[in-house]
Amino acid sequence: xxxxxxxxxxxxxxxxxxxxxxxxxxxxxxxxxxxxxxxxxxxxxxxxxxxxxxxxxxxxxxxxxxxxxxxxxxxxxxxxxxxxxxxxxxxxxxxxxxxxxxxxxxxxxxxxxxxxxxxxxxxxxxxxxxxxxxxxxxxxxxxxxxxxxxxxxxxxxxxxxxxxxxxxxxxxxxxxxxxxxxxxxxxxxxxxxxxxxxxxxxxxxxxxxxxxxxxxxxxxxxxxxxxxxxxxxxxxxxxxxxxxxxxxxxxxxxxxxxxxxxxxxxxxxxxxxxxxxxxxxxxxxxxxxxxxxxxxxxxxxxxxxxxxxxxxxxxxxxxxxxxxxxxxxxxxxxxxxxxxxx
Length: 342
Prior knowledge:
By secondary structure, the protein is of the alpha+beta class. It is built from six helices and 19 strands. It folds into two domains: 8-256, Zn peptidases (Aminopeptidase, 3-Layer(aba) Sandwich), CATH 3.40.630.10; 260-333, CATH 2.40.50.100. It is 20% helix and 29% strand.
């Protein structure tokens, strides 16, 4: 299965026990003609059972998931499992090492490059290995994200609508088990579309949960705790960690992005002064904020207004803003289909 990928590892995914190693990403440079970049990986297995693929560091400047999975990888013992857990706490390791959203090797945005290319750029090779080697092993994927350098996010768990109503209901149930305060359901038309890890998992019929846990290139302790507790709840729910002691999930408010007008963009360059905060309920026409021209009082200020009503789910972090920068994203409540377990 792995013969058509250029990344390799000494991990035996079918071996019981706990293996801590790396994926070897080939990278030839002036200082290392036959060099490789090690991407941390942990495989923990105990007999037959479901497999969970746990990912963080898809974007390098999103830290809560990286810390949560690092803790989990250190703490778990194979004897606690019924099945297998594969942990990648720093999937796009070059970006993680640089503290950037994009890889410094090729400026690649990993979560816009799935399913990847075995003979493409470094970032495309990572996406290809995940798509062709790791995803086929998985029964569930949890991809932990945060707002990174440019955004602040309300803690939330995200899913894509399934191919059938039953599949969507199962994903909504898993989202509730994870237990984020906000559950966001997407039709896949925004963000990276078909080029994300979750979209590729969906094509393969693998349930996928994504998160947003904080932002501003900071490390939120609350976001990290949600990542850790949410992952443990899902692993227990699936029978992979049957005896795990977990905190009960808080109720999840299921919401969705209601079209392109849910996003508010900057029309001009300047210093953005927001008029609302994360978690605020706003209405169409409300003042979103003001952009102050950096040229000073000789230029007019620009007032920005929301085009629709909703809950402020994310907000731009840096004050200095360019035309086209996303300032806010809104979500609205959605009705839920009946749970498949009822």
